[in-house]
Design brief:
25% of the residues lie in helices and 29% in strands. The strands form 2 sheets. Strands 1-2-3-7-6-5-4 form a 7-stranded mixed sheet, sandwiched between helices. Strands 11-10-9-8-12 form a 5-stranded antiparallel sheet. It has helices at residues 9-16, 34-43, 92-104, 162-165, 171-192, 198-204, and strands at residues 24-28, 50-54, 75-83, 109-111, 115-118, 121-133, 136-146, 211-214, 219-225, 231-235, 238-242, 247-249. Helix 1 runs parallel beside helix 5, helix 3 (92-104) crosses helix 5 (171-192) and helix 3 (92-104) crosses helix 6. It has 2 domains: 9-203, BirA Bifunctional Protein, domain 2; 211-251, SH3 type barrels (Roll), CATH 2.30.30. The longest helix is centred in the last third of the chain and has 22 residues, at 171-192. By secondary structure, it is α+β, with helices and mostly antiparallel strands. It binds biotin (BTN). Biotin binds at residues 33-35, 57, 60-63, 66, 68, 77-79, 115, 125-127, 142-144.
Amino acid sequence: MTPVIRWPAEAIWEAVAPLLPGFTVEILPEIDSTNTELMRRARAGRLEPVLLVAEAQTAGRGRLGRDWRGTPGESLMFSLALPLAPADWSGLSLAVGVGVAESLHPAVGLKWPNDLWWQDRKLAGILIETATFGAQRHAVIGVGVNIAPCEAAGLSTPPAALQELLPGIDAAQALLRLAAPLVQAVKAFESLGFAPFAARFNARDVLRDRAVTLSDGLQGTAHGVDESGALLVHTAAGMKQVTSAEVSVRPQAPAKP
Ligand code: BTN
């Protein structure tokens, strides 16, 4: 049976509207993808700040062409769209991760560049897209958080779920917890850039001191992020600043008998 979710739209609006004039909250039972919908609206010139939540997505998108579908109650799925004009866009997804992770639980970690992890398993993902309309650049910040434990569905590592850390929490309560901190993080990033977030990211960095392999094959040991949000990787050729790559944690070599 589909669970009834009581979305605290008014409380979210009250917490966020002072930070974001003209802000509205919209909850839909189902849509293809909250990111796709807000990108369609931005391209059509609908540029007012909005938080769009969907209880189910039929064509939800993750990074690198992956899917992010979800059924009511299983996953919190929303996108925040707003006009944004930072001097430098680098590190926006990391700042969003910091805001979301800090609002959820002290034990939530960050895996560069876009994931929230708990106990070496993915808890949440972030997908940021931008649209330009006239002179204005609009950011669409999509967030998916696993709420209830689910089947691994072919994944080698089952995803983490927020209810493992916060028993009884539902998608609506999670959204109320994170909406205002997310907007605060985005607004702080717009005016100050990533630098003030670096130490906060590093405090939750799950890759630190671990052997990592980058998508281009480079291997090394992760050493946190710098003030631009680049991942520092100590390789055989010295310290590298990684700005765009996928990172996998290299499996430990099996212990010798
Ligand atoms: C990732 O980990 O690859 C990013 C996942 C982002 C999923 C969210 S769910 C709400 C929003 N709408 C989408 O289609 N994707 C994002």
